[in-house]
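Hi everyone, sorry if this is the wrong subforum. Our group has a chain we'd like a structural model of before ordering constructs, and none of us has done structure prediction before. Sequence below.
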Amino acid sequence: MNNSTKILTALIATISISGLAQASAKIGIINEAKVFEGVPQGQAKLESLKEKFQEKGQELVTQQKALQKKIMKFQKNESTMTKDEDAKQSAEIKAEQDDFQKKAMEAQQHASNEEQELESSFQTEIDSAINEVSKKDNYSIVLSSQAAPYISESMEKNDITNAVISKMNIK
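Answer:
Right subforum, don't worry. Here is the predicted structure as tokens:
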């Protein structure tokens, strides 16, 4: 037997063995975003996050509207301005635009960090419920529906999302 035949035979044997192992594995599917939204703990945390950033969002909207008004006024009056007035107002508008962009980016980054922190703290609770449901129903592995690019309809029976939501609602 030559070398390529040995490699091909080993590859076929490996694929066959892994196929048999997969056939005996029970695979579950979980939609963690749905869990997060479907339990009171997640809803409360989302509401808290929303309230926390609503005020900052309003400040940014107000600042944006004021900046837009200033730009429109500048564009309207630009043709009658002296070069010095034009340069001065252009510089002011540029500074305000830069300030607005900086504040918007900071707010977005802060919100993103807060959301990650919230998800991280809540993830422990979700993981615990997933483990309990998985052990009870004898799942070998549970995959996130967001991480799987394709899930066949036949796998819908293995969706443990509602069981996890129920488990978390009991706690």
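For your construct planning: The chain has five helices and two strands. Residues 94 and 100 are 10 Å apart (CA to CA).
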